[in-house]
């Protein structure tokens, strides 16, 4: 992901654990120190490291050298909004999820799923709890583009929906853990009826690849403290937005016409 999408301090914090001891000394100085002279000679002498170490540190962050790093650092400092620690922490954690999404997203897979959405007669989206919120939002957006989509959000409804699934159906299951038994059982029944199945999950291994046609990986929030701050559905929402963007690209004029019709209907209701 391009460096300009995040602050230089955020980049340092994200890489901190991978730094050598010398690099951590440099990182701490730029994160917490009071710097009056940014020249490599002045900084190196102040914290007792070599100028070559400053250069290696900068390159490890993705810059061409120390001068580019300092330019970016100073630019960010001038734009500093004086956010407190809690606000900065929350924003940085969301940035980490976006960075992880950037690293794991399979562009060819996204294109395949977008084409499936464009070719299937009916789409069912299974999700329970926070994953159910993602399913509802995703289905709602697809419906606005003219797709026959429906979110199914409870154990009983997923079971009851099974007779409606046909071979020309697309069934998408959303389970961040990848282990929700009701979602997995629903996908298994859909597979047995020759429907196309997709699982959206943060699990690292494809445990269900015998019944799932596509397993879409979403960002995984590892730290328990962080998982209490970041909305559980956020990583999946990011991925559904990417899929939605690609789906919109196919027969775009028809989809935009459907969206325009719905928006006009909403405006008409408010006018009345």
From TrEMBL:
Source organism of the structure: Catenibacterium faecis
PROSITE patterns on file: HTH_RPIR, SIS
CDD domains in UniProt: SIS_RpiR
UniProt-listed SUPFAM superfamilies: Homeodomain-like, SIS domain
One Pfam family named in its UniProt record: HTH_6
Domain (SIS) ranges: 113-235
Official protein name in the record: MurR/RpiR family transcriptional regulator
Record keywords: DNA-binding, Transcription, Transcription regulation
InterPro entries: Homeodomain-like_sf (IPR009057), HTH_RpiR (IPR000281), RpiR-like (IPR047640), RpiR-like_SIS (IPR035472), SIS_dom (IPR001347), SIS_dom_sf (IPR046348), WH-like_DNA-bd_sf (IPR036388)
Domain HTH rpiR-type: 6-80
């Amino acid at each position: 992901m391009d460096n300009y999408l995040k602050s230089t301090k955020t980049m340092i914090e994200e890489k901190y654990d991978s730094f050598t001891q010398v690099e951590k000394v440099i990182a701490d100085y730029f994160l917490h120190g009071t710097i009056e002279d940014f020249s490599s000679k002045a900084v190196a002498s102040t914290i007792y490291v070599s100028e070559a170490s400053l250069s290696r540190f900068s390159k490890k962050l993705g810059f061409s050298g120390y001068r580019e790093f300092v330019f970016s650092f100073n630019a960010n400092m001038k734009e500093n909004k004086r956010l407190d620690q809690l606000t900065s922490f929350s924003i940085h954690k969301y940035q980490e999820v976006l960075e992880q999404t950037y690293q794991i997203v399979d562009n060819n897979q996204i294109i395949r799923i977008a084409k499936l959405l464009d070719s299937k007669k009916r789409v069912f989206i299974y999700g329970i709890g926070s994953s159910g919120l993602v399913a509802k939002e995703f289905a709602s957006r697809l419906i606005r583009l003219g797709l026959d989509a429906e979110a199914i959000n409870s154990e009983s409804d997923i079971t009851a929906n099974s007779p409606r699934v046909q071979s020309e159906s697309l069934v998408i299951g959303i389970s961040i853990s990848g282990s929700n038994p009701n979602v997995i059982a629903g996908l298994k029944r859909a597979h047995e009826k020759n429907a196309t199945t997709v699982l959206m999950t943060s699990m690292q291994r494809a445990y269900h690849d015998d019944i799932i046609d596509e397993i879409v990986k979403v960002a995984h929030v590892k730290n328990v403290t962080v998982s209490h701050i970041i909305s559980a559905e956020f990583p999946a929402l990011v991925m559904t937005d990417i899929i939605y963007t690609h789906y919109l690209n196919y027969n775009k004029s028809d989809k935009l016409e459907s969206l325009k019709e719905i928006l006009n209907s909403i405006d008409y209701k408010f006018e009345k």
